[in-house]
Design goal:
Blueprint (H helix, E strand, L loop, with lengths): L1 E7 L4 H10 L7 E5 L6 E7 L12 E3 L2 E9 L2 H8 L11 H8 L11 E8 L4 E5 L8 E5 L2 E5 L12 E4 L4 E4 L3 E4 L16 H18 L7 E4 L4 H13 L5 E6 L4 H13 L2 E6 L2 H15 L4 H18 L4 E3 L4 H5 L12 H12 L6 H10 L4 E3 L5 H9 L7 E2 L11 E2 L2 H6 L6 H4 L6 H4 L2 H13 L7 H15 L3 H6 L8 E3 L1
Parallel strand pairs: 13-14, 13-16, 14-15, 16-17
Antiparallel strand pairs: 1-3, 1-9, 2-3, 4-5, 5-6, 6-7, 7-11, 8-9, 8-10, 10-20, 11-12, 18-19
Length: 503
């Protein structure tokens, strides 16, 4: 896990060094800037060492090719065996990208299984790509007749005359061939056909989930887990406990007496994790809000609200581990949001909405998780967004995800239950009261909303609570003060539809 900057045919190593300095929080273990004489490129990298900590330094410069990577390749051991161990100079998972590229295999990038963004340069061309859902960020810009790439928007702050755009999820840019999509989200199924085996589907979902969690725990350092006490993070933590070599470290935050702290404590006791928790106050929220907005790179109200507890959880976890598992993706895969209930009688529309929302996660929850955790030098991993799990979940009819039924039966009467098939598949992992607990938004269950009201009044110098419009205006004002080019940040911000701006 890391951050990087790449300048192609720009010829300004000092600029690359300045850009990587702005995102150095992403990789506190090491910073390196390389300008090979044989290549028209400068690459800068800041490293958080997770796999291959002894010899996995970047940029990786071998022969005439140079590579920088952000993320993790979870099938790197399998790829090494296929490509031939003798070709590798390091134990780094990132090096597999270089050798896959050199293999000249058709659609070689599809063989990468993980979360990643990378830039690879040869004497003749430059290639940049991003994982299927955009878990890891990647931006590119035209600059002085060349190209610039970076892991965060703030790397470009203060540079005038640049046009910045996000490399879309599941896309690859090649200076020889342009941009292309290498991954497309599979469309979701709607209704189970006659004879559909619900029990077998739940059992297979359980196996696929277990495999995803096991895979996403691969590391040469200890991996912990965020634990809010909600269904998604509790499932991940319970499964991870089965694969951890020592008691899993779990982390929960909230205001004193909040529902999340109590629920997380109960889950931790049930699964036997090594649990840590922290209560925060309105004063704490007011103190960290400018830091959160700066690193989040967004002033969107909902995104900021959910980023606040994520910040406290990340800061707590980083005191103990360098990587954590999170529950992001379950709501988009299995219909977990409140607004999904409006689709209960239209499974086809629900399936289409879930597919759409999966494709927009990079600008919303995944941006929050990446920026806020990496601001603390912590790697966040999202097993629900494993490619094999996505493929399988999308094949499950939407009518089994949101179901008008009593939670314990297949009767067609009773309340509407979200994530029904996921709950059924995991029913034995956790106490029934938790398995069938209704979802609470992270900012609600953690008590953030209650702490936020006095915090915003304090920051705004107001004697009355701020309405949503005033809250949004305050967040934007904080963001504008934090950047030299705030228009660049705002136009590319999470939860916005714009993806390009010139300043």
């Amino acid at each position: 896990m890391c951050g990087f900057v790449c300048l192609w045919r720009v010829g300004d190593p000092a600029l690359a060094a300045e850009m990587i300095r702005r995102i150095a929080h992403r990789g506190p273990d090491a910073v390196e800037v390389i300008s090979p004489e044989a290549l028209p490129v400068t690459m800068a990298h800041c490293r958080l060492s997770i796999i291959g900590p002894e010899d996995g330094a970047q940029p990786i410069y071998q022969g005439e090719d140079i590579l920088v990577v952000n993320g993790e390749i979870y099938n790197h051991s399998d790829l090494r065996a296929i490509l031939g161990e003798s070709a590798f100079a390091t134990a780094s998972d990132s090096e597999t990208i270089l050798h896959l590229f050199r293999s000249d295999a058709l659609r070689w990038i599809t063989k990468l299984d993980g979360m990643f963004a990378f830039v690879l340069a040869t004497p003749e061309r430059i290639i940049a790509a991003r994982d299927p859902l955009g878990i890891k960020p990647l931006y590119m810009a035209k600059l002085d007749g060349g190209l610039a790439f970076a892991s965060e928007l703030k790397a470009f702050d203060g540079i005038s005359g640049v046009t910045v755009q996000a490399v879309p999820p599941g896309s690859l840019y090649d200076s020889r061939d342009g941009m292309r999509r290498w991954y497309r989200m599979p469309h979701g199924a709607a209704i189970e056909e006659e004879g559909f085996d619900v029990a077998a589907t739940a059992s297979e979902l359980r196996l696929v989930m277990e495999d995803a969690v096991r895979k996403w725990m691969v590391a040469d350092v200890e991996v912990g887990a965020f634990l809010s006490g909600g269904l998604d993070s509790s499932i991940i933590a319970a499964l991870a406990m089965r694969f951890a070599e020592s008691p899993l470290k779990t982390f929960a935050v909230g205001t004193e007496g909040s529902a999340d702290l109590a629920a997380a404590r109960a889950v931790a006791t049930h699964i036997g994790s090594d649990h840590f928790e922290q209560a925060f106050t309105a004063e704490d929220v007011a103190a960290v809000l400018p830091h959160v907005i700066y690193h989040l790179e967004s002033a969107d109200v909902d995104l900021v609200r959910s980023a606040i507890p994520t910040h406290f959880a990340a800061r707590l976890a980083r005191q103990h581990v360098k990587a954590v598992l999170t529950g992001e993706g379950a709501d988009e895969l299995f219909a977990g949001y409140t607004y999904h209930h409006a689709y209960v009688d239209d499974p086809r529309a629900l399936a289409e909405e879930l597919t759409r929302s999966l494709g927009t996660m990079h600008n919303i929850n995944l941006q929050r998780v990446d920026r806020v955790t990496m601001a603390e030098g912590l790697e966040a991993r999202t097993p629900f967004l494993d490619r094999e799990l996505i493929d399988f979940a999308q094949s499950i009819p939407a009518s089994l995800k949101l179901r008008r039924t009593d939670p314990t039966s297949l009767e067609s009467t009773g309340p509407t239950t979200e994530k029904w098939i996921l709950r059924k598949a995991m029913a034995d992992l956790l106490p029934p009261a938790l398995v069938w607990r209704k979802k609470a938004q992270f900012d609600e269950g953690s008590g953030t909303v209650d702490a936020l009201t006095p915090a915003l009044m304090q920051l705004a110098g107001s004697s009355t609570p701020l309405d949503r419009a005033a809250e949004a205006a305050l967040y934007e004002a904080i963001l504008r003060r934090a950047f030299k080019n705030p228009e660049l940040i705002l136009a590319n911000a999470g939860a916005w539809t714009a993806d390009r701006v010139t300043v």
